[in-house]
Write a structure and sequence with these properties.
Order of helices and strands: EEHHHEHHEHEHEHEHEHEHHEEEEE
CATH architecture: 3-Layer(aba) Sandwich
Largest sheet: 12 strands, mixed
Strand content: 15-25%
CATH topology: Peroxisomal Thiolase, Chain A, domain 1
Oligomer: single chain
Number of domains: 1
């Protein structure tokens, strides 16, 4: 069991997880893809991208199972909200909770970057093609950024606080931090925390115009890398105090030991070249957890595959871990599911927990050697065994210099 700090006896555990990604609908297909090092980035059909510079993305496959399509109100939900609701329902089911959470104080803490933008784009396209005469107003019903979290709260009957975080690619990790604080303080009995984002023309075009997207599936920290691969999906985690989880007979999956955040205060899009803000977020997460840097056994990197981000991240690792920066096993989940923007920190937290549960770090797909200028110990080929009681960091760094990191520990019953 992971060490905890002596001045914070309140322990928070994860009792349920749900996921939607390019790997499929559910946590199980995600783990199969992660363990096999199989990328879900490829040709996609979400919208017309014939005039774009690149033509790959991590698109969620058709679905979900019919039981979810029969969920009340499903047909009226935007794609981002559907991803969020599926992941939330999967998470609360695994946690041994009912579909309605109104008998407890349950809070919803959600991150997103696009919200209902895909449907808003459809509305504008209809308006444009009709000469401004018509557009389905239903396409605007979920355009606001708080829609995914609100949809989850509404369908689960969660009567606690509903928070929405939209701080670029750090959104989901920041939502997890908010959830951790709320559970620790006793504000909520349990927290449903996660994020959701969908592919849309606006973000795809924007990153293409920045030339930040690779023409091939992204290869973080590798020689010859030239950008990210965009993806879509959702991930949700159920958080609650350890004593409450054990009292109701739940089996914790992992422990959320701590979280930290920072801002580069440097540039609108470029990370700090020396990784100062990223290092600060990781250090604050370790301090919050009461964990020394040398206790970290595994690092799930932000790892976008862009030249600047990967270089900045390695600089941050060097600041936090010193000479161990090139020896800590590193996984790059975006090489499997793509970059889920505001939702990336949630899907990567789930991936990290799955690795801790299995006792092995997942490999990154693709060929080529690790770039000698960013010499991380990237897991390649086969899963890398992890020691018993491992502790991991999952990091998320976004535009505007928004940085966040969560510290997760392997769970084993005392």
């Amino acid at each position: 069991m992971a060490e905890i700090r002596g001045d914070a006896p309140i322990r928070v555990v994860i009792t349920g997880m749900g996921a939607v990604s390019a790997a499929g609908w559910g946590v199980e297909p995600l783990w199969h893809a992660l363990r096999a090092g199989r990328t879900g980035v490829g040709p996609f059909s979400r919208f017309d991208h014939s005039r774009q510079r690149t033509h790959l993305a991590g698109q969620v496959p058709p679905g979900p199972p019919k039981t979810f399509r029969r969920h009340p109100g499903w047909n009226r939900l935007a794609s981002t909200d559907r991803f969020a609701l599926f992941a939330a329902l999967e998470a609360v089911k695994q946690a041994g909770l009912g579909r309605r959470l109104d008998e407890v104080t349950a809070g919803v803490f959600f991150g997103t970057s696009t919200g209902g933008l895909p449907e808003a784009e459809q509305f504008l396209e209809e308006l444009w093609s009709s000469g401004g005469e018509r557009g389905r107003l239903s396409h605007l019903a979920s355009h606001q950024l708080n829609a995914p979290g609100d949809a989850v709260a509404r369908h689960l009957g969660a009567t606690g606080p509903v928070f929405t975080v939209s701080s670029a690619c750090a959104s989901a990790a920041l939502a997890l931090e908010d959830a951790l604080r709320s559970v620790r303080s006793g504000e909520v009995d349990l927290a449903v925390a996660g994020a959701s984002d969908s592919l849309c023309t606006t973000t795809y075009s924007g990153f293409n115009s920045l030339r930040a997207v690779d023409e091939k599936p992204c290869r973080p920290f590798r020689e010859g890398r030239s950008g990210m691969s965009l993806g879509e999906g959702s991930a949700v985690l159920v958080l609650e105090r350890l004593e409450r989880a054990l009292a109701r007979g739940a089996e914790p999956l992992a422990e959320l030991l701590g979280a930290g955040a920072s801002c580069d205060a440097n540039h609108m899009t470029a990370p700090h070249p020396e990784g100062v803000g990223a290092a600060l977020a990781v250090s604050r997460g370790l301090e919050d957890a009461g964990i020394a840097a040398e206790r970290i056994d595994f690092f799930n990197a932000h790892g976008t595959g862009t030249l600047l981000n990967d270089a900045s991240e390695f600089s941050a690792l060097s600041k936090v871990f010193g000479e161990r920066a090139s020896r800590i096993p590193v996984s790059a989940t975006k090489s499997i599911v793509g970059h889920l923007l505001g939702s990336s920190g949630a899907i990567e937290a789930v991936a990290t927990i799955l690795c801790l549960m299995a006792g092995e770090a997942h490999p990154a797909p693709g060929g080529g050697r690790v770039d000698p200028t960013t010499p991380v110990d990237l897991v390649l080929g086969e899963p890398r065994p992890l020691g018993t009681g491992s502790i991991a960091v999952s990091a998320s760094f976004g535009f505007g210099g928004a940085n966040a990191a969560v510290v997760l520990g392997h769970w084993s019953r005392p």
